[in-house]
């Protein structure tokens, strides 16, 4: 049996680019037992501040986990099954948005890609209040991941 090529580590720049290209990833929080809790999440990546942002509701278990232990990781799949990026750091959960157009509501609105902005911003912001939406901010202090170069 022949050995194929080994995965190559991706540079910080390549990892950040991968995070920018994707929209979905697996967020890992830590349960009280120490076991990971994994959930697929839509996210937005800010490469300048190295922050991943997630929208969720106040009643989700991941919010409770983060309040108990802020250590978090985001796993993002690359363009093939051999490529990935992991962003690790500490996360914080904001308070839920309580007034349409408040700071948290505006942050949630800012996470939406330009082409997907709601037609009726006021109604959208009111919906976020009704759903008790908040922002999880993952401040990334470590990026790692690999790619596997296979020809043919």
Give an overview of the whole structure.
The protein has helices at 12-21, 61-68, 103-110, 121-130, and strands at 8-9, 24-30, 36-46, 51-57, 71-77, 84-93, 133-147. Helices cover 24% and strands 39% of the residues. The chain starts with 7 loop residues before the first strand and ends in a 5-residue tail after the last strand. The protein contains four helices and seven strands. With 152 residues, it is α+β, with helices and mostly antiparallel strands. Strands 2-3-4-7-6-5 form a six-stranded antiparallel β-barrel, surrounded by four helices. The model has no long low-confidence stretch (mean pLDDT 95).
Give the topology:
Layout: E1 8-9, H1 12-21, E2 24-30, E3 36-46, E4 51-57, H2 61-68, E5 71-77, E6 84-93, H3 103-110, H4 121-130, E7 133-147
Antiparallel strand pairs: 1-7, 2-3, 2-5, 3-4, 4-7, 5-6, 6-7
Helix pairs in contact: 3-4
